[in-house]
Amino acid sequence: MKKLLTVVLVVVLGAYLWYSRALSPVDALSTKRQIVKIERGLSVAKIADHLVEERLIRSSLAFQVYVRFHGLSTGLQAGSFALKPSLSGAEIAEALHKGFSEEAIITIPEGYTVQDIDALL
């Protein structure tokens, strides 16, 4: 009985350590942004595989488990996303769920009219 309990504890601890490591950032010090395009209608598995190919997450399986466990599987959005390898798998899942897409900084010079702003955009 003690042996079985020890085996179960070791397996659970190993799974927890793997899961924590698999969701950690690929490159915690990276500041570069990668544009990732998520096509409409892709499954969670296909999205996870694409993120692994882009080297944004470590494990497709861990990402899928996180997304399904947190109820995000039906809410991942399509589009282009600016993501960093310094984001964890959980942060990337939240970004895809909330729809944080490409961002741009726009400076509107003082005195521009609505027509000027429209032309600028």
End-to-end distance, in Å? 69 Å
Largest sheet descriptor: 2 strands, antiparallel
What is the beta-strand fraction? 5-15%
- C-alpha geometry: elongated
Q: Whole-number average pLDDT?
A: 88
Series of secondary-structure elements, N-terminal to C-terminal: HEHHEHH
Rg, please?
Answer: 20 Å
Which percent bin holds the helix content?
40-55%
Spatial strand arrangement across the major sheet: 1-2
In total, the number of strands is: 2
Number of helices: 5
Structural class: mainly alpha
Low-confidence stretches: none
Provide a compact summary of the structure.
With 121 residues, the chain is mainly alpha-helical.
Explain what you see.
The protein is built from five helices and two strands, in the order αβααβαα. Helix 2 crosses helix 3. The mean pLDDT is 88. Strands 1-2 form a two-stranded antiparallel sheet. The radius of gyration is 20 Å and the shape is elongated. Helix content is 49%, strand content 8%. It is mostly helical and 121 residues long.
